[in-house]
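Quick one: structure for this chain?
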Amino acid sequence: KVNGIIKSGLPHGEWIEWKFKPSAYSSGKIASVGRYSNGKKDGTWYFYHRNYDSVKAVQQYSKGKKHGEWITWSSGLKPTPTTWGVYVNGRKEGKGGTKTAVYRVE
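Got it. Here's what it folds into:
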């Protein structure tokens, strides 16, 4: 389920994707929140763990392409970054890493 605007047949503006739709009995659970511009992801997107206890990932887009920092966190009481990296126009750039290793893309 989603909350958002369709403009000329394409997602546009603020967008919320639900794990299940909110109702009179439940507030629902958000799966992700972000923005579309003419059908393409644009700006910062937030993705949530299944139980909505914390942010699972933060991803940045520009005109539908990965662009900027991407970070993923573990779930639980003390979330820690598990992976990270930087993208420029859809390509991984520079230094990135995982919980156990740091890598560099040349």
